[in-house]
Amino acid sequence: MPIYSPEETLAARRALGIDEDRFPRSIAIIMDGNGRWAERQGLPRVMGHRAGAKVVSKIVAEAARLGLTNLALYSFSIENWSRPAEEIDALMQIYAERLAGERPTIMANNIRLRHLGRRDELPQSVLDELDESTKVSASNTGMFLSLAINYSSRGEIVDATRKLAAQVAAGRLSPGDIDEAMLGENLDTHGVPDPDLVIRTSGEMRLSNFLLWQVSYSEFYATQTHWPDFNEQELHKALQAFAERHRRFGGLDNK
Questions:
Q1: pTM flag (> 0.90)
Q2: Which pLDDT belongs to residue 102?
Q3: In a domain? residue 148
Q4: How far is CA 230 from CA 42, 199, 223, 237, in A?
Q5: Of 39, 73, 72, 81, whose CA–CA distance to 53 is shortest?
Q6: Above 80 in pLDDT, residue 254?
Q7: What value does the mean pLDDT of the chain take?
Q8: pLDDT tens for each residue of 58-94
Q9: Which one, of 67, 58, 57, lies nearest residue 4 by Cα?
Q10: What is the per-residue pLDDT across 131-144, written as a single tens digit (0 to 9) for each?
């Protein structure tokens, strides 16, 4: 059972002063600035990653309280493998630790965990915790928590295309039958709504190869706040900014 009743969720949303029809269903966050946060405080970069991991717990809990359908978090891109080996090792250890440690919270909040990204190259310790959390939360009915670890949006699209090409080669699919919906069904994000809102921390203004297919009509919100300093109030600001946007989806403003 969900930890929050529909009445509690509605009250939480109303407290932000946002009309129900202007509240996003799905949010994606590019969690940026852990290293810069640590360096500005004279700390090793790994301390920034550990501080950022604690923020994840708070934001996931708040997203569940507000009744989001999906929260996608960009944790580690395929390009991040170019970082120093000791930083990567520390990150993988943090992922394994937090996935195991947060499992009770995931279950208590009725959250369903999804992994976005390729499994190859990830250490077995991370895969084991991802698989266990995915398995035990599969029957939950609440918010999707989509963790992008070893993720590349271009790679995701290539992988989906290869799946469809294999079906064509096997004679099970005609090329003329392939459409956007079919490609979407073969992406890592199949079954969850595309983001209404993309949030990026630390002042950067780019997508960094994250959910390129899925964010075609997403609203973008950037904050100067580094991820370790991001909190529930910062999330609320992003939601309130989203509520002020006029989404036309390629059409004209309603008169």
A1: yes
A2: 94
A3: yes
A4: 19, 11, 9, 11
A5: 73
A6: no
A7: 95
A8: 999 999 999 999 999 999 999 999 999 999 999 999 9
A9: 67
A10: 999 999 999 999 99
Tokens of 47: 């301390």
Digit-coded pLDDT (tens) for 17-27: 999 999 999 99
**Which residues are designated catalytic?**
32, 80
Q: Is residue 2 part of a domain?
A: no
3-state secondary structure at position 118: coil
- CATH code for position 238: 3.40.1180.10
- The alpha carbon dihedral of 144, 149, 154, 157 has a sign of negative
Sign for the CA dihedral angle at 55, 110, 117, 100 comes to positive
CA dist 212 to 19, 103, 217, 247, Å?
28, 29, 10, 18
Question: What is the layout of strands, in order, in the sheet containing 144-151?
Answer: 112-116, 144-151, 70-77, 26-30, 197-200, 219-222
49 Cβ contact partners less than 8 Å away, ≥ 6 residues apart: 34, 35, 38, 87, 90, 91, 94
Residues 6+ apart with CB under 8 A from 42: none
What is the token pair recorded at 163?
């799946």
Per the structure, how many domains does the chain have?
Answer: 1
Q: Are 135 and 164 in contact (CB under 8 A)?
A: no
Domain that holds residue 57: 25-243
Task: Give the pairing type, strands 197-200 and 219-222.
Answer: parallel
Phi first, then psi: give them for residue 89, nearest 5 degrees.
-60, -40
* Residue 24: both structure tokens together: 């996003």
Residue 15 located in a structural domain: no
